[in-house]
Amino acid sequence: MNRLLLNKFILILSTLSALVGLGFLFWILITLSYKGISSLHFTTFTKDLVEGGIRNLLVGQFTMALMASTIAIPIGMMAGIYLREYSSNGKLASIIRNLSDVMMSAPSIVIGVFVFAILVDPFRGYNGWAGIVALAIMMIPIIISTTDNMLSLVPKELREAGIALGGSKHKIILQIILKAAKVGITTGVLLSFARIIGETAPLLFTSANNQFFTMDLTEQFPSLTVSIYNLATYPDEASRELAWAASFVLTAIVLCINLLGRYIIRTKK
């Protein structure tokens, strides 16, 4: 009897906790949607920040995120492949896995300060390259961990079948193992991209922000997240409305990335 009562109590407590969490989530989304949509205008997407729009901010944010991805994805995947297929679970592999776990849990602001010390302070100025490096550092451990874990789920029989057919190690990995794990690896890449596209702290110390449209990565670079942080602190109402509009757009982008990823994963299974 006591066990049944305890089970019901835990069930009720868990359900209430879930409802409270969902309640706060919907509260945030409803408030963000109401204030963001009401502040959106056509010119929000056609003008730069200096004119009261976010065009240069969107271009700058995606430029840094995509360039960070071109750095992080190959490095992360190759490291994950090494850990699972070549390391034989040795001491070096254990060190890399532990470092990857530490980096995933490291505060993003710490990464920003580190990149500031090596790529901003020595060159006497904020720049877009520093922001790209900071975002890439955040992506790499997520991709390493996901690749390592997904490859571990590939049945050993597939590897043995490839060896039996006379395939070399790298061909087995590229043509059999990676194809079998592509869904999980794609999920990890999308999750890492969705994380960096909404990061603010590392960019505050690296790329800073630029009110004008520019593609020069050697100077301060436009950033949507940093601009939201700055605009929200300004005293005038127009700046705060633009911050709400930019926040809504950023949330919609992250949501669309996740939905697109889920669609791609389902259609390629």
Explain this structure to me?
The chain has 269 residues and is an all-alpha fold. It has a domain at 55-224: MetI-like fold. The protein has 12 helices and no strands. The chain is globular, with a radius of gyration of 22 Å. The protein starts with a helix and ends with a helix. The mean pLDDT is 87.
Count of DSSP H/I helices: 12
* The CATH superfamily title of the domain at 55-224: MetI-like
Whole-number mean pLDDT: 87
Low-confidence stretches: none
What is the radius of gyration computed over CA atoms, rounded to a whole number of angstroms? 22 Å
Major sheet summary line: none
Q: Which percent bin holds the helix content?
A: over 70%
The shape, in one word, is globular
Secondary-structure element series: HHHHHHHHHHHH
What is shown here, in short?
This protein has 269 residues and is an all-alpha fold. It has helices at 2-39, 43-46, 55-86, 91-105, 108-120, 128-152, 156-164, 169-180, 182-197, 201-204, 224-233, 237-267.
List the helices and strands and how they pair.
Blueprint: H1 2-39, H2 43-46, H3 55-86, H4 91-105, H5 108-120, H6 128-152, H7 156-164, H8 169-180, H9 182-197, H10 201-204, H11 224-233, H12 237-267
